[in-house]
Write a structure and sequence with these properties.
By secondary structure, this protein is α+β, with helices and mostly antiparallel strands. The protein contains six helices and ten strands. The strands form three sheets. Strands 1, 2, 3, 4, 5 and 6 form a six-stranded mixed sheet that branches. A two-stranded antiparallel sheet has the order 7-10. A two-stranded antiparallel ribbon has the order 8-9. The longest helix is centred in the middle third of the chain and has 15 residues. The radius of gyration is 18 Å and the shape is globular. It binds iron/sulfur cluster (SF4) and FE2/S2 (inorganic) cluster. The site of FE2/S2 (inorganic) cluster (FES) has 12 residues, from loops.
């Protein structure tokens, strides 16, 4: 295999494929019909590589690599479904699920989608103490008990809309999404553009008054990429 003028040839799960110039392993895999879970990555956004749901095994490398933030090299051998990669992907999803509220705030939660895709059952881990809802804004409901801290809303607000209202503050177990100087959203400088709502994969940010209803499908939602889950998929 070699680098052609069109891209980079590498092996994914035993199959030789070609990545277009600049394409990540995740993007190339998707284009060839291989579904790798991902949560902090969304189309049109800078990859942040923070959730680790998308890790893959690369032959010759000691640690697993985030496929959303890694471009393939010529002749690289990548395994997205090896025992080690799947174990890690499922563990990330299970840990995130353990903190979710009992009732999902959106029916098309991307976390639920990937958990179903990988057959992740009831989480075995205790539920963390989560922030109270913030319903102070007339247009956007904030329920950070469903937040997986993917920072897609931060990138949407700061890098897409250049509003810079949303931030990620505090440390360790106390780290959380904040608005301006940790103000209630209704008292922040939010202009209600809705970019963060569109970006949020779990419904932690939703249009006010429609929590638990299906929101308009995101251009980046997994079902848009791969279609609805089939039994046994
Ligand atoms: S509020 Fe939503 S988009 Fe923002 S970090 Fe939490 S889960 Fe991600
Ligand atoms: S999607 Fe790759 S690290 Fe989150």
């Amino acid at each position: 295999m070699s680098t052609s003028t069109n891209g980079v040839r590498f092996t994914l799960d035993g199959e030789a494929i070609e990545a277009r110039p600049g394409e990540t392993i995740l993007q190339a895999a998707r284009r060839h019909g291989t579904a790798i879970p991902h949560l902090c990555y969304a189309d049109g956004m800078r990859a942040d590589g923070n959730c680790r749901a998308c890790v893959v095994e690369i032959e010759g490398e000691r640690t697993l690599a985030p496929s959303c933030a890694r471009t393939p090299a010529p002749d690289m051998k990548v395994h997205s479904r090896s025992e080690r990669a799947l174990h890690s992907q499922k563990m990330v999803l299970e840990l995130l699920l353990s903190d979710m509220p009992e009732t999902a705030y959106r029916q098309d939660s991307e976390l639920d989608y990937w958990a179903a895709h990988l057959d992740v059952g009831e989480p075995r881990f205790p539920h963390r103490c989560q922030p109270e809802p913030d319903l102070s804004h007339p247009a956007i409901a904030v329920r950070l008990d469903a937040c997986i801290q993917c920072t897609r809303c931060v990138r949407a607000c700061r890098e897409v809309q250049v509003n810079d209202v949303i931030g990620y503050a505090h440390r360790g177990a106390h780290a959380q999404i904040v608005f301006d100087m940790d103000d209630p959203m209704g008292q922040s400088t939010c202009v209600a553009c809705g970019e963060c709502v569109q970006a949020c994969p779990t419904g932690a940010l939703m249009p006010a008054g429609v929590a638990a209803e299906l929101t308009p499908t995101q251009a980046t939602s997994p079902s848009e990429w791969y279609g609805p889950l089939r039994a046994g998929a």
